[in-house]
Specification:
Distance between the termini: 79 Å
Number of helices: 2
Strand content: 5-15%
Structural class: alpha+beta
Largest sheet: 2 strands, antiparallel
Helix content: 25-40%
Strand order of the largest sheet: 1-2
Shape: rod-shaped
Length: 65
């Protein structure tokens, strides 16, 4: 009986000093989008989206697509 009482008191004491869970952080680290300035190279079957500095690679990818 003493063991049960001690265990009960220990559990009550631990529950009083417990740290609250921080589980309600949904959306806190949401992505903040920027305005992207890309161009579109339209091929017969595909649209290739690229930035100005990648124009030569996009032209090659459009040729292969």
């Amino acid at each position: 009986m003493k063991t049960t009482t001690r265990l009960s008191l220990l559990l009550v004491a631990l529950s009083l000093f417990g740290v609250p869970a921080r589980a309600q952080n949904f959306g806190r680290n949401a992505v903040q989008y920027e305005t992207f300035h890309f161009k579109i190279l339209k091929t017969q079957h595909f649209d290739v989206y690229f930035y100005d500095k990648e124009a030569d690679v996009a032209a090659e990818a459009g040729r292969m697509a």
